[in-house]
Structures are given as structure tokens and as C-alpha cells.
């Protein structure tokens, strides 16, 4: 939730957003503000001013040396001018100027692991576990598919905080391993544009008991087979 960080009668801040990463190591600040005689538009990262608008020179200034490779944003100066104009408008409406600074934590993407509760044996009840960790903010949504069909009956615990301020959550799905079944857990989170998925292929886990090298070869040959099958299927469709 937004936190009011400071208050001053001098400036109206149109927006001031301070973003801190979950581990507290990095912070990002963006300020747009004005008074009747002064305007400011500034971007900072980790305590350094990365860019500001110079309204006299009519351009964005990137004060860091060029080898730091400051990110130049096209249209940033035009945006700053537009912000100043609406800030000046607000100054007329708001009787007492104030500074508001929103503090938020940046979103951090989760990492996902999939494994089973017990050693896998065909036909023996077991539980698939989808462990999601390192994300901010909470929560994530986890959904499961079996052979590309949605399955219900999974459970998920409430978000649990990690030491670094991020969260973890675990989803469980009871299943009975059968040859050829492929399970997938899909994780949705604010930081992701599309779900992050992990696959559990029963065959790989039951049959590949030798060194992982053989497992890799077996899996590759299997995939070549699937690709060839798909190719002929497509050809067949084209002829009809
Ligand atoms: C295995 O799971 C199914 C469905 O979840 C259940 O009906 C069955 O009793 C279980 N079998 C054993 C041996 O636990
Ligand atoms: C989780 O699912 C709910 C209900 O479908 C949805 O409103 C919400 O936005 C989802 N959350 C994320 C992080 O995708």
C-alpha cells in the first residue's frame, strides 16, 4: 500500500514513486513535481541520478559518464513537459501543495521446481509438488494439467515469507503414475506476462534410472519421434 514519505509546503509532486527490490539491494525512484516557479522530473537508480529534464536546455540530461550506458528513453523530455503542464494545472486546484511519495516493492519473478513426494512407481499413489519461490508480491496462482487437460483437486498453501522478503508457495496434486502421462504446473504471477510452466513426464522419471547421459539420449530420440510424427500428420492434412 502507498506510504506517504514526506510533506512539504513548497512543491506539488505529481508523482513520486520509489521502488525497492525485495532484497533491499536496489532502489529505483521517479519524481515529477512542480511549484509555481520550479519544475522537476527525475529518474534515479540505487541512489544515483540517472536522468533529469533540463527545461532551459529543453532536453533530458544523463549525468552518468557514457560508459555506464544510461538508458535513454525516447520521448522522455516530451513526457516531462506534459507532466509539468498537468502539475501546474493541479497546483491551481490544490490549495495547499504537498509532496506524496509512493513506495512500492518492485515485482520479482518466481522460480519453479516440480517433484514428487515419494519415489515414483507405476500405479502407486503419489503426490506431485510444484514449489514456487523467490517472488514478490504474493500470491501466485498455480494450475495443473495432465496430458494438456486441466485437472482439479490440487491444493496450495498460503504464501510464506522467505528471509529476503520474497515469498514461497507450494501446490500439491495427488496422482497415480501411469506410463505416458505428462503433468504440467503453470504459475501465474504479477511479474510474468505469461505463465511459467514446469513439466513432469512420468516416463522420464520411472524409466531413466541410469546415468543422466542415457536419459538425455532417450529423451532426445523420443522427441525426434514426436517431431517426425507431427510432420507426417501435417503432410496428411495438407493433402485432404
Ligand atoms: C489411491 O488413490 C485413489 C484416488 O485418489 C484412491 O481411491 C485409492 O484408495 C488410493 N489407493 C491407495 C492404495 O491408497
Ligand atoms: C489469480 O487468479 C485470479 C482468479 O482467476 C485472478 O483474478 C488473479 O488476477 C490471478 N493472479 C495472478 C497473479 O495472475
UniProtKB/TrEMBL annotation:
GO terms for cellular component: MHC class II protein complex. InterPro entries: Ig-like_dom, Ig-like_dom_sf, Ig-like_fold, Ig_C1-set, MHC/Immunoglobulin, MHC_I/II-like_Ag-recog, MHC_II_a/b_N, MHC_II_a_N. One of its GO terms (biological process) is antigen processing and presentation. It is a single-pass type I membrane protein. Residues 110-197 form the Ig-like domain. The chain crosses the membrane at residues 209-234. It is found in: Membrane. Residues 1-22 form the signal peptide. Pfam families: C1-set, MHC_II_alpha. Coiled coil: none annotated. Keywords: Disulfide bond, Glycoprotein, Membrane, Signal, Transmembrane, Transmembrane helix. Belongs to the MHC class II family. This is H-2 class II histocompatibility antigen, A-U alpha chain. It comes from Maylandia zebra (zebra mbuna).
Amino acid at each position: 500500500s502507498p506510504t506517504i514519505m514526506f510533506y512539504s509546503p513548497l512543491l506539488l509532486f505529481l508523482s513520486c514513486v520509489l521502488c525497492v527490490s525485495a532484497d533491499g539491494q536496489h532502489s529505483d525512484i521517479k519524481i515529477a513535481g512542480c511549484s509555481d516557479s520550479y519544475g522537476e522530473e527525475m529518474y534515479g537508480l540505487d541512489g544515483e541520478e540517472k536522468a533529469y529534464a533540463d527545461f532551459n536546455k529543453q532536453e533530458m540530461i544523463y549525468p552518468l559518464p557514457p560508459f555506464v550506458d544510461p538508458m535513454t528513453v525516447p520521448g522522455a523530455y516530451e513526457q516531462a513537459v506534459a507532466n509539468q503542464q498537468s502539475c501546474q494545472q493541479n497546483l491551481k486546484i490544490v490549495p495547499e501543495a504537498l509532496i506524496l511519495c509512493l513506495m512500492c516493492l518492485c515485482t520479482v519473478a518466481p522460480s519453479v521446481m516440480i517433484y514428487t513426494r515419494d519415489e515414483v512407481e507405476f500405479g502407486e499413489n503419489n503426490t506431485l509438488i510444484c514449489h514456487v519461490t523467490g517472488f514478490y508480491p504474493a500470491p501466485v496462482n498455480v494450475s495443473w494439467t495432465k496430458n494438456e487437460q486441466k485437472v482439479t483437486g490440487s491444493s496450495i498453501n498460503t504464501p510464506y515469507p522467505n528471509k529476503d522478503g520474497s515469498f514461497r508457495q507450494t501446490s500439491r496434486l495427488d496422482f497415480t503414475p501411469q506410463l505416458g502421462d505428462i503433468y504440467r504446473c503453470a504459475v501465474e504471477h504479477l511479474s510474468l506476462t505469461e505463465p511459467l510452466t514446469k513439466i513432469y513426464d512420468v516416463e522420464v522419471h520411472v524409466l531413466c534410472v541410469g546415468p543422466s547421459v542415457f536419459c538425455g539420449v532417450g529423451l532426445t530420440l523420443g522427441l525426434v519421434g514426436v517431431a517426425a510424427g507431427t510432420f507426417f500428420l501435417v503432410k496428411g492434412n495438407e493433402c485432404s
